[in-house]
Amino acid sequence: MSIDWKTKRVTVTGGRGFLGSRVVAQLKERGATNVTTFSSHDYDLTRQTEVARMYRDQKPDIVIHLAARVGGIGANRENPGRFFYDNAIMGIEMMEQGRQNGVAKYVQVGTVCAYPKFAPIPFSEDDLWDGYPEETNAPYGLAKKMLLVQAQAYRQQYGIDDIYLLPVNLYGPGDNFDPASSHVIPALLRKRVDARDEGAPSIQVWGTGSATREFLYVDDAARGVVLAAERYEKADPVNLGSSSEISIRDLVHLIARLTDFKGKVEWDSTKPDGQPRRKLNVDRARTEFGFESKVTFEEGLRNTIAWYESSRAEVRPARTS
């Protein structure tokens, strides 16, 4: 299967965000001329009437649903109810209204947080239901996982071509560097660079450093989403990742080396580590639609560091006296 993007009207929710902006760029590279994005001020996707209005206005043939309420461990702990409701209701309404409006293809992007806390390594899509997610991420992860149930149910009853993707933790230039809501790489990177420039003797890092993570460069993730939209048409969920695992402790030391930070690292073991390990089995993506990551982890980190150092005046709030 392949899609002639030139003839399709495509709506990308979250299309102005970190991943979404790259997906839009990929679509345009492939010849798409009618790609629509919008902000939450244009349409509030948590409201049924607003989702219906969006579909009436844009009349998409293909929907790629990326809009989400997301954040790191701290944000998840502080907003479990909001993260559950907003992500569940946005996805449910987007898919249901897509069905009512005859969308030809619907791409739902889920989250690695949907996996069980102690899933066998590497995480296989077949293990998705074999346990409860890690507690700090569970409301968010379960809300997104219910959208897989919806997609499969709609495919079974209505014959809709809904597909479901499970990307691992993303990183790259343009990420969210707000300490209150950022994920691990931008949070650590900002701490290192700021501490280096301020001459701070040490930085504090949450947890013990023993947890492991897999990361996928954002441009690779966008390419995977578009490849899946073009070539994949099955009910089974698909992992998107690099299948490369690193401990948080080793990640901290790597970022220190790349940012030339010489200070001490103080581990706050009273704070949670999150899920003990994350590493995906990515065979299905490779087999079904030819996706493999291309950007090495160190190359991606260097790109991200360079972007932050050149852009931090814009991404950091001004200090007040």
- Sketch the major β-sheet: 6 strands, parallel
Q: What is the distance, rounded to the nearest whole angstrom, between the alpha carbons of the first and last residues? A: 59 Å
Number of helices: 10
Q: Quick one: overall form?
A: globular
Q: Roughly what percent helix? A: 40-55%
- Summing up helix and strand content along with how strands pair, one would put the structural category as alpha/beta
State the strand order across the main sheet.
2-1-3-4-5-9
Question: What is the N-to-C order of secondary-structure elements (H for helix, E for strand)?
Answer: EHEHEHHEHEEHEEHEEHEHH
Strand content: 15-25%
Assembly status: single chain
Low-confidence stretches: 317-321
Average pLDDT score: 93
Estimated radius of gyration: 20 Å
Number of strands: 11
Describe the structure in brief.
The protein is of the alpha/beta class. 43% of the residues lie in helices and 15% in strands.
